[in-house]
Specification:
4-stranded parallel sheet, 7-stranded mixed sheet, binds 6-O-phosphono-beta-D-fructofuranose, 2 domains
Length: 325
């Protein structure tokens, strides 16, 4: 058992619904084990500047259901430098912080990996990103909420597409990952999906529009923002030029995908990994991301969590094809 007295807790990178549930779980578990928690505001940016706030049982009351992050978040260029990380370490030491819990995605863990190799301070991470683009966990905190937000939005787009007999290109987030597009495409009954992991997406879409059933009353194409085709407006332009008889519109869902109340799945995931993070630190884990694989808590070194494969489950693409006949 490692003797930890004070944990520093922060969220970093893009926010994700369920981060607050994770914060609550970490704070309450730490208190359960008589460990103090200091909240670090605005991620690495606030760590360097010494933006700290003590956290108690009440500071995390009534947040399990709230989107965003009460600790705020930011992306920090300064932390990418050794000097920035040294400043952050000195700030943490001035508060007697002896371990860290980081909640975020790949930028957060890239920073944690560098920091953990330079300084003797245990860090564990919780996967918090809507993109679901980390290895070492089946799902990330925020992904389930985001895909439900997308599906709700696309259902609304479907209503108007149906009324006007239109084709809609809907762009969803995911940075360089197509995992939001892949699942939401199936759930929203998409005609086709365009994702960076599949290079045949545009050819497939053209084929569908040329040779597919002609009596459809609406069509939805889900395009991941990272797809090579150049973004929804460019795809809309190409489709309009090639298929002028389709009445085509474009919709970019944007940051609504990052907001809103976390779903039950995200709250439970966040609570499970939040409890496990504090217990992992007590058990001597460091430089690892805590995830859930096949319903069991898993521990993955930061370096491996960052190396997600860009291969996707080909069955998912086939499902879109079969079901959009
Ligand atoms: O990583 C989460 C995410 O929402 C990505 O899907 C998206 O590409 C990016 O963050 C947008 O970042 P920002 O809010 O800084 O524009």
């Amino acid at each position: 058992m490692t003797q930890i007295k004070k944990i520093g807790l922060y969220t970093s990178g893009g926010d994700a619904p369920g981060m607050n549930a994770a914060i609550r779980a970490v704070v309450r578990t730490a208190l359960f084990y008589d460990i103090e928690v200091v909240g670090i505001l605005r991620g690495y940016h606030g760590m360097i500047r010494g933006e700290f706030m003590p956290m108690g049982r009440k500071s995390v009351s009534n947040i399990v259901q709230r989107g965003g992050t009460i600790l705020k978040t930011a992306r920090s260029d300064q932390f990418k430098t050794p000097e920035g990380r040294k400043k952050a370490y000195d700030q943490l030491k001035s508060q007697d912080i002896d371990a860290l819990v980081a909640i975020g995605g790949d930028g957060t863990f890239t920073g944690a990996l560098a920091f953990g190799s330079e300084f003797d301070m245990p860090i564990v991470g919780l996967p918090g990103t809507i993109d679901n683009d980390l290895a070492g966990t089946d799902f990330t905190i925020g992904y389930d909420t985001a895909i439900n937000t997308v599906v709700n939005a696309v259902d609304k787009i479907r209503d108007t597409a149906e009324s006007h007999n239109r084709l809609f290109i809907v762009e969803v987030m995911g940075r360089d990952s197509g995992l939001i597009a892949l699942r939401t495409g199936i759930a929203a009954g998409a005609e086709a999906i365009l994702i960076p992991e599949n290079k045949d997406g545009m050819a497939h879409l053209f084929d569908r529009l040329e040779n597919g059933r002609k009596d459809k009353t609406s069509r939805i194409v889900i395009a991941a923002e990272g797809d090579d085709a150049g973004g929804a407006f460019e795809i809309g332009r190409i489709v309009t030029e090639r298929f002028p008889h389709y009445d085509t519109r474009v919709s970019i869902l944007g940051h609504i995908q990052r907001g809103g109340k976390p779903t039950c799945m995200d709250r439970v995931l966040a609570s499970r990994v939040g409890v496990a993070a504090v217990e992992a630190l007590r058990d001597g884990h460091r430089n690892e991301m805590i995830g859930v694989i096949h319903n069991e808590i898993s521990y993955t070194p930061f370096g491996s969590a960052l190396k997600r494969s860009t291969e996707i489950n080909a069955n998912f693409l086939k499902i879109v094809e079969i079901l959009s006949l």
